[in-house]
Amino acid sequence: MPALATLLPLPDGHDPFGALNPEQRAAVEHGITAAVRGPHVAAPLLVIAGAGSGKTLTLASRVARLVLAGADPQRLMLLTFSRRAALELERRVGGVLHRALGFRAAQRAPALPWAGTFHAVGARLLREYAPRIGLAPDFTIDDRADAEDLLGALRIDLGLAATRQRFPSKSTCLAIYSRVVNTATSLDEVLKTTYPWCAAWHDELKRLFAAYAAEKSRQHVLDYDDLLLWWAEMLRDAALAAEIGSRFDHLLVDEYQDTNRLQAQVLHALKPDGRGLTVVGDDAQAIYAFRGAEVRNILDFPAVFVPPARIVTLERNYRSTQPILDAANGVIALAAQRHAKQLASVRPGGELPQLVRVADEGEQATWVADEVLRQREAGVVLKRQAVLMRAAHHSAALELELARRGIPFVKYGGLKFLETAHVRDVLSVLRLAQNPRSRAACLRAGALVPGIGVATTRRLADALASAPEPASALLGFRPPAAAAGGWAAFAALYRGLRDAASPWPGELERVVAWYGPQLERLHADAPARAADLAQLVHLAAAHASRERFLTELTLDPPQAASDEAGAPHRDDDWLVLSTIHSAKGQEWSVVFVLNAVDGCLPSDMATGCSAEIEEERRLLYVAMTRARAHLNLLVPHRFYVHQQPAGGDRYVHATLTRFVPDALLDRFAQHVPFGAAPGMPVPQAAAAHAASVDLGARIRARWA
């Protein structure tokens, strides 16, 4: 492909990358003077992008710069962790190219056909190479719930559910399996380090997972983790790895700190010498070890290659004020290992973040609600304010206080599309049409027919499993007499879905129409759920086929509006409540961090080793760097602990999180709004305020 710059000249004196700062420009221009195609592309590049430093702009600009220099968009792979991120990067790349080349409105910037999530790109390659790797080309992908159900059925079949001692639940079994796969670690090691209470079941779990793998193969299904596992295993074949790697001159990866060992293995197999490989991320924001993410991937990346990868560090922050960054820099500077950086704000001024010391969770909830309303009256709408917490239950007292005062809020995250019963019902019918061998789809879809119970659906699933042509077996199935009418309608629907001429997305509309009476029969809140199904039909229109729709929806499901926890549907403004994990990548003008005390942050469940403690430190750093102008760390002197092994539920005394030692206290303003509770340490700077409490102000604030 000829360089696009030779097709349409750049306007005289126009620099489409003129808005980039010098560090961003260095990342964008890396290796551009060398050839951008074939075997002589640029050496590996690691971009350490600090919080709020313009990571997305930099990555999109690098892609656009490569294309302008002659890189073929068809030979460029861009990997992200969400479909939304991939679409946003594509949009920004297109915007840069439009500005650079002066495309007219009727013209379009080149598409990036290989931009997507790791799992979506992996699924596409697996389907393409399926005949060569012993995989059925018509495979479907089980979501988490279906994978759990399959494991649960196998637990029963193998007699593991009938043991006299507690055998791990189906969800725990899937979590163990997933961790073994994503961390590329042995079952024995995972049980010892993460699930010690399950260690006695090592042999039984190994037998269960062997049966699980065999059953998935028989049903022509993969689960979510298999998409990476099969991709990595496929690349163990040197010839296949070389063939696939040669298809792509450039491989760019977003959020590299969130990759697991399997994903790192995939990247290194595709680009063993690192040439053409660009990864962007921030080790200080590596907070997903519970999903199998491996922070060593980004820490060790430069040394993996010879010569080492180039490192470009982005330290200019376009989000937060400098006082907030000074505090966050101090917290992360105490990390045991990191890529050094010092975030500097481009925004002038700013107030010190606050350490707000309160007696207990009740006072914490009162103060947060008071301050939320005060900020609202000062012009900061509720949507620009967020309350962050280490664990979802930490906001229980606050939620009651917000409800009492009529302050609307949304708590992230609620149920996703694929976790709601009505959406799973509709998708099960589509999945059964796509893959008649899928037992999970058969059991769920069959049960939707009035008059058909568990025994009949199992008989149907067994019949499909043993039939040479399972679709024909379904159409020839004889249901109980009581279900004859409902079964006839279902069979007619299924016959139409299996017709090669069946139009997409019209077939989803037919399934939703058939499901309408079942929705009324099964759910009291049918109208609210029907809105989700209308949204599902709308989403389907953006996908080229049933197979692509099912794949992409399973890999990256949207939120379900009717099931979003606490969604204030009748309000045009609401406060955001979120776990820190769910808040990553977001920003707000005002941020409150609940329970900034040892036992909550770090969680007392995540202090078993130094690696866990370091990840907890990064969690606090992520929470702090979400704030643009106002940051408040709440420090209750005591908090309620649930279901303790000794003593049951009880209050415990707390101390300020260890991640804010005495040496960092001068980077915060200390505030004791309600006076000192007995035994509460009162900072000297706050003593005068604490000794005089304006009760009238408190009473008036309730009417704000």
Quickly list its features.
six-stranded parallel sheet, 19 strands, Rossmann fold, 28 helices, 45% helix, seven-stranded parallel sheet, alpha/beta, disordered N terminus, 704 residues
Architecture per CATH nomenclature, i.e. the level-2 architecture of the largest domain = 3-Layer(aba) Sandwich
The number of helical elements comes to: 28
Number of strands: 19
CATH C-level label of the largest domain: Alpha Beta
**Going by CATH, what is the homologous superfamily of the largest domain?**
P-loop containing nucleotide triphosphate hydrolases
Q: On the 0-100 scale, what is the average pLDDT?
A: 84
CATH topology of the largest domain: Rossmann fold
Q: Please give the share of residues in helix.
A: 40-55%
What coarse outline follows from CA principal-axis ratios?
Answer: globular
Q: How many domains is the backbone divided into? A: 4
Let me know the largest β-sheet.
Answer: 7 strands, parallel
Strand content: 5-15%
The structure class reads alpha/beta
Distance between the termini: 63 Å
Low-confidence stretches: 1-12, 559-569, 643-649, 684-693
Rg over C-alpha atoms, rounded to the nearest angstrom: 28 Å
Write out the strand line-up for the largest beta sheet, numbering strands in chain order: 13-14-12-15-16-11-19
Short description:
With 704 residues, the protein is α/β, with parallel strands linked by helices.
